């Protein structure tokens, strides 16, 4: 990526940015001491919404910068996926001068977010117990793998959490070994939970005037994100097993073969089921006592599956997709990632947006929330390592001068 233009000021509000609409988090400053996925995903969402995010990186940089393939012009797309709209500064916290700069950034921040192991920041004076005392209005957000108690020394990798949470035990075919999800889903869920917690804490601070320590761990986010599966165990001791693509409580709900490839069908209630079988040519099944209710359909899956497969085999997945969609019956073909993005484009969802300007432009996936008045912006490409170090230092100096002038008045 090209060098950042010299003497670029770091915007902290919409008034500093003439090229974008005011974001809902305009004016909020975030000191980002995270790396890899959960934290960076959270801070990118905040940055998209107008927050000023200072990404503090060690001299070696965010680990995800090296996670190749795939890459775009030599830069890891894993890193590009979660780091737009941020300002990168390189600081070695073991160096006294750099540590002082880190503290200056925290001095200016509304939010500090980090994913160090519990206690890992104590020697730098940046532990939550220290920052929240020194800065009573600061929202200090900590992300760990397994909390600050018995799991404090366990490394927080998403795959470990997929295994330990039970997700892998319910993913895949019952005849095969447990499978991981195709994306680091608990990192993403934790990032979303972190953003929610930060926004809640900011709102509460507006009432009380006080900050607080917001803690998250991947395992707790995973158990929450497993919703009905973990709730079933908590409420009645049910331990779910792998069902392949079947749903434990709904049928038909999954992929079914057609004349040439699978089609996903989701009949979530009796009305949808009745419309489904009517359009497939055996409407009588909706009144059959074996299939009339969801409980009965679950008990007679194998018989119902034979009827569905026989009817669907008469035509292609594309044909049935068009016919059933027209009748309001939830269904979908199974696409690859590229086809999924293209399908969203055909729906007018515009999933790909360009982050950055001119020679630094990078195609990225858009922010998932649409605001009617304060839309997300994509003005800054994911930064090169330390690309904004000089600008961040100049910004800190200017903020210090402004503070001194206000004090002297």
Essential attributes:
disordered N terminus; 409 residues; CoA-Trfase_III_dom3_sf; 13 strands; formyl-coa transferase, domain 3; CoA-Trfase_fam_III; 3-stranded antiparallel beta sheet; alpha/beta; CoA transferase
Number of strands: 13
Shape: elongated
* Rg result: 25 Å
The number of helices is 14
The CATH architecture assignment of the largest domain turns out to be 3-Layer(aba) Sandwich
Low-confidence stretches: 1-8
Number of domains: 2
Series of secondary-structure elements, N-terminal to C-terminal: EHEEEHEHEHEHHEHHEEHHHHEHEEH
Write down the overall mean pLDDT.
94
Helix content: 25-40%
CATH fold-level topology of the largest domain: Rossmann fold
% residues in beta strands: 5-15%
Based on secondary structure, the structural category is: alpha/beta
Largest sheet: 6 strands, parallel
CATH superfamily descriptor of the largest domain:
Crotonobetainyl-coa:carnitine coa-transferase, domain 1
Strand order of the biggest β-sheet: 5-2-1-6-7-8
Query: What is the CATH C-level name of the largest domain?
Result: Alpha Beta
The N- and C-terminal alpha carbons lie at a distance of: 43 Å
Protein name: CoA transferase
Region (Disordered): 1-21
GO molecular function: CoA-transferase activity
Pfam families: CoA_transf_3 (PF02515)
């Amino acid at each position: 990526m090209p060098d950042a233009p010299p003497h670029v000021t770091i915007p902290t509000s919409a008034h500093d940015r003439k090229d974008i609409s005011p974001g809902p988090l305009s004016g909020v400053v975030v000191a980002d001491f995270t790396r890899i996925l959960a934290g960076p995903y959270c801070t990118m969402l905040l940055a998209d919404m107008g927050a000023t995010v200072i990404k503090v990186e060690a001299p070696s940089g965010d680990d995800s910068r090296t996670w190749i393939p795939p890459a775009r012009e030599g830069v890891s797309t894993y890193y590009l996926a979660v780091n737009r709209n941020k300002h990168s500064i390189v600081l070695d916290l073991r160096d006294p001068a750099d540590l002082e700069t880190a503290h200056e950034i925290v001095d200016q921040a509304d939010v500090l977010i980090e994913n160090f192991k519990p206690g890992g920041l104590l020697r730098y004076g940046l532990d939550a117990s220290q920052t929240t005392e020194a800065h009573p209005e600061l929202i200090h957000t900590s992300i760990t793998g397994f909390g600050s108690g018995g799991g404090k020394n366990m490394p927080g990798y998403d795959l470990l959490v997929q295994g330990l949470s039970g997700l892998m035990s319910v993913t895949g075919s019952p005849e095969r070994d447990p499978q991981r999800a195709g994306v680091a889903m608990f990192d993403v869920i934790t990032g979303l939970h972190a953003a929610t917690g930060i926004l809640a804490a900011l709102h509460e601070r507006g009432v009380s005037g006080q900050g607080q320590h917001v803690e998250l761990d991947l395992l707790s986010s995973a158990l929450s994100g497993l919703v009905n599966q973990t709730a079933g165990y908590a409420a009645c001791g049910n331990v779910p097993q792998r069902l392949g693509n079947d749903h434990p409580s709904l049928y038909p709900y999954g992929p079914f073969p057609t004349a040439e490839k699978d089609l996903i069908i989701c009949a979530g209630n009796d009305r949808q089921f009745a419309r489904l079988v009517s359009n497939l040519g055996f409407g009588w099944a909706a009144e059959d006592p074996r299939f009339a209710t969801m409980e009965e359909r679950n008990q007679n899956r194998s018989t119902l599956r034979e009827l569905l497969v026989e009817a669907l085999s008469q035509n292609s997945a594309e044909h049935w997709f068009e016919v059933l969609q027209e009748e309001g019956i939830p269904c979908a073909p199974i696409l690859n990632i590229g086809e999924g993005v293209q399908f969203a484009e055909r729906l007018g969802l515009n999933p790909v947006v360009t982050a950055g300007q001119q020679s630094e432009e990078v195609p990225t996936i858009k922010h998932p929330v649409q605001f009617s008045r304060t839309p997300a912006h994509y003005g800054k490409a994911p930064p090169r390592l330390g690309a904004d170090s000089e600008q961040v230092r100049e910004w800190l100096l200017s903020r210090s001068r402004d503070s001194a002038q206000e004090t002297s008045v």
